[in-house]
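#onboarding

Welcome to the new folks! Below is a worked example of what a typical request in this channel looks like: someone posts a single protein sequence, and someone else replies with the predicted structure as tokens. Don't worry about understanding the tokens yet, we'll cover that in week two.

Example request:
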Amino acid sequence: MAKAQKNMRKNAENTHELSSELCISVGAGELADLFGRSLEWVRELKTRGVIQNTGTRSRPQYDLVISINSIFADHSRRVALSGKKAARATDARTREIELRIEQKERDLISVGESVDIISELAEMFRAEFAGLPARFSSDQSKQAAVRAEAERSLRTIEASAKQAIQRLQHGASK
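Example response:
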């Protein structure tokens, strides 16, 4: 960037030396017509210091060669800045999308983890139901009835767990 600015200054100095020898003064209207722009555009360039008035306040005149060089240099600088702004905006949008994806990935549970959780829950049910008949009653016939009912419930839970595991492993959704 510094090298480009140095080259622009050098070009401006060379142009200024040439224009002193070939000084062609034009009015604001002629300069606007040359670029197909409005008088307001020429005034804005003057206000921003891009071009210099070599005439009087009531009748502004501009050195044509210096003005053209300055306008192109200013345009190049503005284009470079707008490109950088667009790149920064694109980078920011990309980073925002990446952060959203990371968040979604953190919220997801892998298939392997899901299978392990389902299997662990089924084992916990079996362990808890194993002691249920003895806690329910000391009568052997009542324990047998509770045990049979618990086994039926456990088979249903285990069958549902196996189906859930198969759906996860094969990618089918419920």
